[in-house]
Amino acid sequence: MSQYQAVKGTKDVFPDEAVQWQLVEGVVRRLAGLYAFGEVRTPVFEYTELFQRGIGATTDIVGKEMFSFLPDPQGRSLTLRPEMTAGVMRAALQRNLLSQAPLHKLFYISDLFRKERPQAGRQRQFTQFGAELLGASSPAAVAEVLSFMMGVFDALGLTGLRLRINTLGDLEDRARYRDALRAYFLPFADELDESSKERLEKNPLRILDSKNPALKELIAAAPRLFDFVKAEGVAEFEEVLSLLRDRGVSYEVDHLLVRGLDYYCHTAFEVTSSELGAQDAIGGGGRYDGLARELGGGKDMPAVGFAVGMERLLIAMEKQGLLEGLKPVGPKVFVVVQQLELSGHAMQVAFQLRRAGISTELDLAGRSMKAQMREANRLGAAYALFIGQTEFESGQYGLKNLVSSEQSTFTLDSITEILREPLLCG
Ligand code: AMP
């Protein structure tokens, strides 16, 4: 064993587990295609200020969870991205995307980094898939991203999910609400825990996110943001809900839902899974029209998006037996050689088969025929192709179906014809 271990809160993934990731990624990509979202990839690190501005200085992410570093003593601080939205918006503004087309539908599958205390479903490097729809935040746009997200869960067969949804109003509504909330909590300041006390000054909305059971009743009786939302905002929210009903998406309106990030406005949502423990949030999102201005874009940009945690999604799928029996696909053919001197020829045979799009494995370690057969079975190969001196000289090879055990002799060209699969590229 190496003296080095993977860093706490990070994970290695080998082929037998990678197939689970590929299953989910495949569905995400398929649904993204159906909903016409194009893939966006942004750098893994950005200037630290981007996240300070884009996520908000009072959030836990910026306050204590960022992996930041100085590239050199004079350099500007950099940070490993803790979420995707700020980077995508930065990229969109930098490219001036909206001047090229009025609407952009982007999706991603990306690694993120947060200095959190690792536990089940909470890592320091984790992966999210998500989408950002830029240029529109109409009820239809909100329903579009929500349908995409819920569509992925549906396609994967995941059940036991709860979609909670709320409206946060506009900036003005939130400012009035913030004042009301501060006035409400102030007389109870002594009963608040340390982090809530801090939030009381900086951002009292975040007290509502507290998981502290001692504060539950106090929070439940607090004024509701919904009562501060103007009539237009309420009407828009109703429209979103009606579109979701039309599309058969079930939801629960939860006026206590306030997302931790500062740039959200109007619709916000969160999905939890009954299969997860303390960390039961599987995804969330909402509208963030104010982010572009916050990042120096000069004005608001209508925008709505979501992000789903892949690790938690996989934990929930595992609990529901949705990953059972999933294993890497073995090669179609295993080339078995009788003696070492034929291994050069075996490589040529494998090369021809691979060129025809037939996945082929062969012995690379000079093992006995028996060991090669064992390996072919272990890998789940469909056929074994035998090469001995006679086969080499006659050009007629034995092909054995490893499931039915039937065996016949063919030329290599015939075998290629029989097993040929269209090659995707090349
Ligand atoms: P957020 O960006 O905080 O809204 O998170 C969106 C989703 O990402 C959550 O619902 C989780 O599924 C996932 N997530 C967030 N933080 C972590 C983490 N540290 N480890 C694993 N998954 C996470």
UniProtKB/TrEMBL annotation:
<feature type="binding site">
    <location>
        <begin position="263"/>
        <end position="264"/>
    </location>
    <ligand>
        <name>L-histidine</name>
    </ligand>
</feature>
<keyword id="KW-0648">Protein biosynthesis</keyword>
<feature type="domain" description="Aminoacyl-transfer RNA synthetases class-II family profile">
    <location>
        <begin position="1"/>
        <end position="328"/>
    </location>
</feature>
<dbReference type="InterPro" id="IPR015807">
    <property type="entry name" value="His-tRNA-ligase"/>
</dbReference>
<dbReference type="GO" id="GO:0005524">
    <property type="term" value="F:ATP binding"/>
</dbReference>
<feature type="binding site">
    <location>
        <position position="259"/>
    </location>
    <ligand>
        <name>L-histidine</name>
    </ligand>
</feature>
<feature type="binding site">
    <location>
        <position position="114"/>
    </location>
    <ligand>
        <name>L-histidine</name>
    </ligand>
</feature>
<comment type="subunit">
    <text>Homodimer.</text>
</comment>
<keyword id="KW-0436">Ligase</keyword>
<keyword id="KW-0067">ATP-binding</keyword>
<dbReference type="GO" id="GO:0004821">
    <property type="term" value="F:histidine-tRNA ligase activity"/>
</dbReference>
<dbReference type="InterPro" id="IPR033656">
    <property type="entry name" value="HisRS_anticodon"/>
</dbReference>
<dbReference type="InterPro" id="IPR045864">
    <property type="entry name" value="aa-tRNA-synth_II/BPL/LPL"/>
</dbReference>
<dbReference type="Pfam" id="PF03129">
    <property type="entry name" value="HGTP_anticodon"/>
</dbReference>
<dbReference type="InterPro" id="IPR004516">
    <property type="entry name" value="HisRS/HisZ"/>
</dbReference>
<dbReference type="GO" id="GO:0006427">
    <property type="term" value="P:histidyl-tRNA aminoacylation"/>
</dbReference>
<protein>
    <recommendedName>
        <fullName>Histidine--tRNA ligase</fullName>
        <ecNumber>6.1.1.21</ecNumber>
    </recommendedName>
</protein>
<keyword id="KW-0963">Cytoplasm</keyword>
<keyword id="KW-0030">Aminoacyl-tRNA synthetase</keyword>
<feature type="binding site">
    <location>
        <position position="128"/>
    </location>
    <ligand>
        <name>L-histidine</name>
    </ligand>
</feature>
<dbReference type="InterPro" id="IPR041715">
    <property type="entry name" value="HisRS-like_core"/>
</dbReference>
<dbReference type="InterPro" id="IPR036621">
    <property type="entry name" value="Anticodon-bd_dom_sf"/>
</dbReference>
<dbReference type="Pfam" id="PF13393">
    <property type="entry name" value="tRNA-synt_His"/>
</dbReference>
<dbReference type="InterPro" id="IPR004154">
    <property type="entry name" value="Anticodon-bd"/>
</dbReference>
<keyword id="KW-0547">Nucleotide-binding</keyword>
<dbReference type="InterPro" id="IPR006195">
    <property type="entry name" value="aa-tRNA-synth_II"/>
</dbReference>
<comment type="similarity">
    <text>Belongs to the class-II aminoacyl-tRNA synthetase family.</text>
</comment>
<feature type="binding site">
    <location>
        <begin position="83"/>
        <end position="85"/>
    </location>
    <ligand>
        <name>L-histidine</name>
    </ligand>
</feature>
<feature type="binding site">
    <location>
        <position position="132"/>
    </location>
    <ligand>
        <name>L-histidine</name>
    </ligand>
</feature>
<dbReference type="GO" id="GO:0005737">
    <property type="term" value="C:cytoplasm"/>
</dbReference>
